[in-house]
Amino acid sequence: MEYLVKRCLTALILSSLLGCASAVKRDEPVAQAAAVEMAGQKYSKLNLYISDDAKKLLAENIKFNPEALRNTIQRVLEARNQLEAGSPYRIDIEITHFNVRSHFSAVMFGFLAGSDSVVGNVYIGDNGGRRLAKYEVSASYALGGIAGGQDEARMGWLYEEFAKQVVNELPGADRK
């Protein structure tokens, strides 16, 4: 019996640790060159759009709100003083994939129902159209139950984590 309890506790701890995740994939040489060129720079524009392939997912994922995601990223940029109207640099974010579990699945099955996720490419460039850096950001949230399965909590965490990763990886940015 003690063995079974230990196994269950181990599984519970591991599932809670793996429940939320985020990652960034970047092109290292391009990112380093952009970081040197753009150290201390700010951004004048933030544009978020959904790729053609990802648009097909909107019908199945009605709780995904691109405008709420964009507003969250904007809020993080403002909080970190990364926006300046006259800056020659811009941020374009292409959402390439997303998944949102139903409320019932998230509450009843938690991480067993998969995860809520968002993946996107971040392009840093100047207002003339030149691309200086590109990286991919992903965030996922797989917790559930009564507390972790509420739509606002899940989507809020997901958008917040995605936004933090976008801003943390900006060339020359302080990672907070």
Description:
- It is a single chain.
- The chain is of the alpha+beta class.
- It has one domain (19-168): 3-Layer(aba) Sandwich (Rossmann fold), CATH 3.40.50.
- It contains seven helices and five strands, in the order αβαβααβαββαα.
- A five-stranded mixed β-sheet has the order 1-5-4-3-2.
- Residues 8-18 and 102-113 have low confidence and may be disordered.
Largest sheet: 5 strands, mixed
Work out the oligomeric state of the chains in this entry. Answer: single chain
Report the structural category.
alpha+beta
CATH architecture: 3-Layer(aba) Sandwich
**What is the CATH domain class?**
Alpha Beta
Low-pLDDT segments: 8-18, 102-113
| N-C termini distance | 44 Å
How many domains would you count in the coordinates? 1
Arrangement of strands in the largest sheet: 1-5-4-3-2
Order of helices and strands: HEHEHHEHEEHH
On the 0 to 100 scale, the average pLDDT is: 75
Let me know the number of strands. 5
Tally the helices: what do you get? Answer: 7
Give the SSE layout.
Blueprint: H1 2-18, E1 20-26, H2 28-38, E2 45-50, H3 52-55, H4 66-79, E3 89-99, H5 103-109, E4 116-126, E5 131-141, H6 145-148, H7 151-168
Parallel strand pairs: 2-3
Antiparallel strand pairs: 1-5, 3-4, 4-5
Helix pairs in contact: 4-7
